[in-house]
Amino acid sequence: MRILLVEDDSKIARAIKKGLEQENFAVDIAHDYHEGIGLALTQEYDALIIDRMLPGKMDGAQICKEMRRKKIQTPILILTARAEITDRVEGFEFGADDYLVKPFAFEELLARIRALLRRPEKMLPEVLEVDDLKLDTKLYRVERGGVEIILSRTEFALLEYLMRNKGIILSKEKIMSHVWDYDSDVLLSSVEVYISYLRSKIEKPFKDKKKLIHTIRGFGYMLGDKL
To answer: Which residues contact 147 (CB under 8 A, 6 or more apart)?
Structure first.
């Protein structure tokens, strides 16, 4: 799951990014309106966290307004030091989905993000299942045929993305942009490497079971029944 965080306070941004990455999210950071709107309109995200007060004339609510004007319906959580009802109402009118007043506990931020991702428009279940492979996004547990499989954070994020897109061919570029954040030092070949890691854990030990990850030459990878 990939999140864009628009926050001008570097210390707060780093803390949120670190916490979310520990929860297996890929996080891109922007520090002002122009950087934030540029990423929001050109990259694919599962959710946005936007500070209301940004440097310059354009604040975070303007990012919401512009995204909704462009018909981009990605869930948006606004962070703000303003607790007044009028400020919150204005944020909602501009297209925000939720509002969190500073200071806040990271646990509440995480809970609100997860709640946004479970809204009907997204329909993202907590437990994903493909054949006898099961992935629990809340407990960070993967098992096949009842046997637990231990994955690294990146392997887990990659498998989750493949399972959420069961039956869909995903290019290396799309996988890379969704599983790794914008600043990661990663190459297209890294996707191949991590696909290999996954196969060694969810296929090779289960030789009596069907293969689930398929290479579609010239296009990318797909998880599910082979085309």
So the answer is: 205, 206
